[in-house]
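Archive entry: two folds, one per protein. Generate the first.
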Amino acid sequence: MNAVLDPPMADIVTPAARNGAGTSTNISTATPTSPSTSGLFEKAVCLVLSLRKPGNRRTLPASLVEVDADKEMISAQKTLLASEHLKAIAHYDGEIRRYLYSRCLPSLFMTGVYLVPITLVEEVEAKLATFSATREQLVQAFIDAYPQLVESARGRLRSAFSEKDYPSPEHLKRSFKMEWRYVAFSVPGTLQTISTELFYKEQEKASQQWQEALEEVRGLLRTHLAEMVHHLVDRLSKPGEDGKPKVFKNTLVSNLTTFLDTFDARNLTDDTELAAVVTKARGLLGGIDAQTLRTSEALRSSLCTGFAGLKETLDSLVIAKPMRAFSFDDE
C-alpha cells in the first residue's frame, strides 16, 4: 500500500472499529510530530473510493478501417453497446463524487481519495451504503437488458461485431464494483527498529508533505467559496440581454448553502479568516432559497450588495499561485 499512497499509511479503520466494535489493521503507530499536521490526523481520515465499470469501446481492426493514409497512423474505435443503462450508471457515479466533494476534501495524493472530517464519517458511511445499494440496482437493470443490447449491437455493427467483445452476463456483472475503505496516515513505526535516522527523516518528509497538503486544502476551500460567490454576484447583479433578471438554477443557492452548512467540519486547517467570511455569508443567506430570490427584486439587490463585499474579501484571500486542479462536477 505504501507504494500507492504517500505518505505511508498507519491504520485501515472500519466504521465498526471507530464505534468500539470490530477491529482495525495496524500497519504502523508513529505519526508526524509537527503540531500543525498532527492536528489534521485528529480531525480527518482518508476515504479511498473505487468506482469500477467495464469499458464500452474497442479499437477497430485495421482491416475494417478504409482511409487514404498509413493505417499505423490511424486509430478508430467502435462503441460496443448503445445503452441508456450504462449512461445512468456513469451519471450516478458522478452524483456519488459530487456528494463526496460537498462533504469531504480531495486528499491531494490521488484520484478517488478524500479527506473525511471525523464529524462527518458516520454520515458519509451511511450515504455511501445507500449509494451502493442504488448502484447495484442500476447495474442489475443493465444486466437484465444486456442480452437484448448485444443483439442490437450485432445488427448495427455488422462486420465490426465480435462475439469476444461480449462476456457472459455473470462475468460482466463482476466488472462493476463500488468499494471504499478508511485510511489513517503515519510513518511506519517499524522503521525505528531498523534505523532511527531513517525513521526521523521519514517523519520530517511526511510532515513537510502534509504541511503542503494543508496549505492546498486551505486554498481549495477559499477558491471554491470565491467561485460560488463570484457566480452568485454575477447572476444577481447583471440583467440579461432583454433587461430582465438573469435566469439561475436552484443550485446557485443550494450549493452555497451546503458549503456554509458543512464548512465547520471541513475547515481542517482552522482558517479563521475564511471562517469570518463564512459567518457573514450565513447571515446574508440565512433562510433564503432560489425561488424567493426570483420573486423579490429588493432581496436580489440587497443580497448582491452584501455578497459583493464578501467577494472583495475573498479575492484578497485567494493566493494567486498554481494549485492542483480539482473538479466539483462530474468526472
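Generate the second and append.
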Amino acid sequence: MRSVVSVSFPRSGHHLLERCLRGVFPGEVHYCDFYRHCRRSPCIDARTNLQKTHDFNLRLTRAPGYLYVVQFRHPLEAIVSWYEAELRHRHKSRIGEPPLRRAVKLTFVNDSEVYWRFFLAKYLRFWRKFVHKWAVDPQPGTILLAYPALVLHPQEELTRIAEAVATGDRPTADRIRSVVEAQHIAARRSIRGFRYFDEERFARLEDGLAADLAALGLPRVVRVGASQHG
C-alpha cells in the first residue's frame, strides 16, 4: 500500500476509512496517529503507510511521494458531533482524556448553550481555514473524500481510494463489498436532534457557508433543497 497521510477535519469518518483500508489490505497497514505517536508528519517510523492528522495548527506541509487523503464534512454536522463526543468524555481524568482534546488544548467546561456557541464559532473558523487549505482547490497528490459520499456510497468511495493506494493487484469488487458490509455503516444522524439546535440560527450560519458548501459539493442540512448560492 502506498504511503498515505489522512488529513481530516474531526468527525469526518477517518476511523471508518482506517478500518476499511485494514480490511482491504490485511496485514499491510502500518498506522500512526500523529497525536498519540510521534507528532511529526510524515511519521518518523519508516514502516508507517497510513498516518492520521487533523492539521490543527494549519502548518502541515506536504512531503514528496505521499498521497494526501483529505476528509471533510458539513461543518454543522461535524462540530455538533465533535461537541457531543467531548461531552461523553468530559468527566475523564487528564490522563484518560481523548488525544483530540489534548491536541487542541481544549478545556471543556460544563455543558451550556453559551459554551456551545463559543465552541461552534471557534471551530467554524477552523473549518473554513482547513477546507480552504486542503479541499477547495486541492493540490496534485490529493484525494478528496467527503463524509456524505463515504457513508452513502461506501463501496464506490472505498474502491476509488483503494485503487489509488494499491501498489500490487487491485482489490476485487467482492473483497471491497465484504469489507463494507462488515462495517455496518449507519445512516447519518440529523442535527435537528441536537439539544441546542436552533433552526433560524443554524440556517443563517449555513447561508454564510453557501459558497464553501457549493465548492465542496456538500449538500445543505438545515435548509434542505435551498440554493447553494443563497
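Annotation attached to the second fold: Strands lie at 4-8, 31-33, 50-53, 67-72, 142-146. The chain has nine helices and five strands.
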